[in-house]
User: Fold this.
Amino acid sequence: MSVIIRKSLLELIFSGAFMKRWNDKLRPMELVEVDKQGHKLIVAWLLFLLNSRDMDVARKRALGESIIEGGIFDYLYRLVITDIKPPVFYRIKENAEDYATLTNWVLKELTPRIMPLGADFMRRMNEYLMHPEDKGLARRILHAAHLYASYSEFKLLKSINRMDHELTEIEQSFIDRLEAMRDLNGVSELLDEDGSVLGGFARMCGRLRFQKRWSQTPRVPETSVLGHMFIVAAYSWFFSMEVGACRARSQNNFFSGLFHDLPELLTRDIISPVKGASRDISELIHEYEILELHRVVLNPLKQGGYTDITERLEYFLGLEVGSEFKATVVLDGVVTEAPEADLAGKYNHDTLDPKDGPLLKVSDSIAAYIEAHTALKNGISSDQLHHALYRIQQTYKERPVVAGVQVSALLADFD
Assistant:
């Protein structure tokens, strides 16, 4: 069965932007599920690199795939059980029969939307969700990343909930569970946010939840840069499945989506009309983004001994070829821009480390389209939103198929 990406799946992934977290606590801002997932998967990627340094390429690829799919499975599960508080869910999980009953119901709810992803995807998700007792490396990395991202949220609301009798118990639970994960490379450094370059970088990435997209346009929901990056990563993964991308290409596409707006943390959210006002302005802003990226992120990580992390970030962000939206491969150890069509053919091999810049751009555009479309559907009328929809529609009417994805036909489903 071929994989087909449908509107319903894209909207399901986006729906986490509505899903509030810590809903029984006073919050300094809305904390939503897609932001948490973005932070979690960024941290999972860091732990993935640090815990696979001694692995051969095949084992490393398999681990990366397990982490990405496990993260997506966890997210889909979470979207369905949204109203169950964590303490209640953990008690259910302790009872194998009750957990199986709940999970079977979740899978039944998800099936209509994810069935187009194919029988193999369904089987893997069923296997993953029905066996939570698995303590393999991928699961442990995802669990540590989940705890870190959730604890980061907790620290945001801790100071304004001092009278809450649950706070001490909640914090101690986070501390105890994270301490139990210190045998994983990188966990100790992540917990030392002030003294560790790695911990500081992870905390910095979490700050992207403060940065709202479309900052001059009212929207419901108000997606952040952090949540948007996760949505783009998930879309990139699904489109990679649809076009038959090799394992390396699929993973590169996911992680490129997960980091593609990282430079905006350093130059703030400069709105698209300013970026696109002229080629000179666009290039000027890009130059400043890259300078700040090196100064604040890449150079400190290199100096801290994390050269492998900086090299992958540079590749995901397309620094060697000038844009994250260009197709690239590694030929004889050199990062090289590649013709888009060749990524589906002679360059679609793990050994060439291919990355689909054009497919990433499609995912980014569709995520923006759904943001605007959803806001309009929710009653927010804005010239900027209407213009954004029109601009994206026109772009893909002129070029309906990009990187093997039928973009124009997919957008037509939203009309």
